[in-house]
Design goal:
Layout: E1 7-8, E2 15-19, E3 24-26, E4 33-34, H1 36-47, H2 66-69, E5 72-77, E6 83-87, E7 102-107, E8 116-117, H3 124-135, H4 148-151, E9 155-183, E10 188-211, H5 218-223, E11 233-234, E12 244-246, H6 252-272, E13 280-309, E14 312-319, E15 325-327, H7 333-360
Parallel strand pairs: 8-13, 9-12
Antiparallel strand pairs: 1-2, 2-3, 3-4, 5-6, 5-7, 6-12, 8-11, 9-10, 9-13, 13-14, 14-15
């Protein structure tokens, strides 16, 4: 027995049927009428929709050379589990993520060699001065954050990033309306016209970054973007001298979902901006097909400040290339209570003055 195809109204989604009087398809819910040819064309377009194809070619990665491994040491933090890498001249250090002492493990092993690195452009003194300036005017910030001895704990860390490069063929379809309103002596009228809008084209993405560290909050790393990837150079261990390097603990395969999410949102936003002249625009369907998608591994420069306040750890980050700073600053509760009490008093005075003014009037 053949299956009966049910047509959905493109406007409201309700089931539509053929009206023998009108000789058209009509929706009983929104009263929209459709020519048979229009529905057939719309149905054909729906049947040609493609699913997303956002698969990536994962590189095998580069191996460390024996002479490179000999100049690098690995440290592990017994508190947060963070593993960092530094040159052979670093005898002992503290964890850049939580501030606790770290323990030497020996030579680096079990990691891929980075393809690229963005060298630090901002030195420690400049970073300290910028942080100190950033604290100015923040009266609710605890004093420990403003203490010069604490600022000495700023550490330069190369953070592992996976860089995603790809071309993308994008097809999007939208529901759009144009609404016209007018009135006469008897009635107010509203006319709504519905449109199916399609957009298709190609777009290219270069060096979409996804940090490869569990210890680095994703929102923190995304907030100090962008990094200027035109400044990347081929990795050499010499760039690590005087700095720490975080060892990646999120593989490129596990980072694909975040990369795809960023690419999808950027592509959808770019194509949405091309739809103009309508009262409302709603995305109906869309597909993204990646082409020549590849992944590389890089180290990006970040200045980190980690401190504990009232039993909680706070991580503050600065882009070591551009100087952009972000972080969740702690709150001095005593100062906050004084500020809130003062603000409440001011608001109370204002409301009292308004009340008195209204009473007089």
């Amino acid at each position: 027995m053949a299956a009966i195809q049910e047509y959905k109204c493109p406007c409201c989604g309700g089931a539509i049927a053929f009206d023998s009087t009108l000789q058209k398809m009509k929706c009983p819910y929104c009263d929209t009428e459709f020519e048979m040819e229009t529905l057939a064309s719309y149905d054909s377009e729906l049947s040609n929709d493609q699913a997303d194809d956002m698969s990536w070619q994962m590189g095998s990665g580069n191996d460390w050379q024996a002479d490179e491994l000999g100049s690098l040491n690995a440290y592990v933090c017994q508190s947060c589990g963070g593993e960092i890498t530094c040159d052979e001249n670093t005898a002992a250090t503290s964890c850049p993520f939580c501030g606790n002492p770290v323990v030497l493990m020996g030579q680096l092993s079990g990691a891929l060699k980075p393809d690229y690195v963005i060298p630090f452009k901002i030195d420690k003194n400049t970073a300290k001065a910028a942080l100190q300036k950033h604290y100015e005017g923040k009266r609710l910030l605890p004093k420990v954050f403003k203490d010069q001895n604490h600022i000495d704990e700023v550490k330069g860390v190369y953070v592992p990033f996976w860089l995603f490069d790809t071309g993308a063929n994008v097809n999007m379809r939208y529901k759009a309306t144009k609404v016209r309103r007018w009135s006469d002596n008897n009635y107010d009228y509203t006319e709504t016209m519905y449109y199916a809008v399609s957009r298709g084209g190609s777009i290219k993405f270069e060096s979409v970054p996804v940090d490869g560290s569990v210890k680095m909050p994703d929102d923190l790393m995304e907030s100090i973007e962008p990094f200027d990837c035109s400044a990347v150079v081929n990795f050499q261990t010499a760039y690590l001298a005087g700095y720490l390097a975080d060892k990646y603990d999120v593989s490129s395969e596990k980072s694909v979902e975040r990369a795809n999410d960023r690419i999808r949102k950027s592509a959808e936003a770019a194509f949405y901006e091309t739809v103009k002249g309508y009262s409302t625009i709603t995305k109906e369907t869309g597909s993204i097909q990646l082409q020549n998608a590849k992944v590389s591994y890089a180290l990006f420069p970040v200045w980190l400040l980690s401190t504990t306040w009232n039993g909680e750890n706070y991580l503050f980050a600065m882009n070591g290339q551009t100087g952009k700073m972000v972080g969740n600053l702690p709150l001095d509760k005593a100062a906050y209570k004084k500020w809130l009490f003062g603000l409440t008093g001011i608001i109370g005075i204002i409301f009292y003055a308004i009340y008195c003014l209204l009473w007089l009037l």
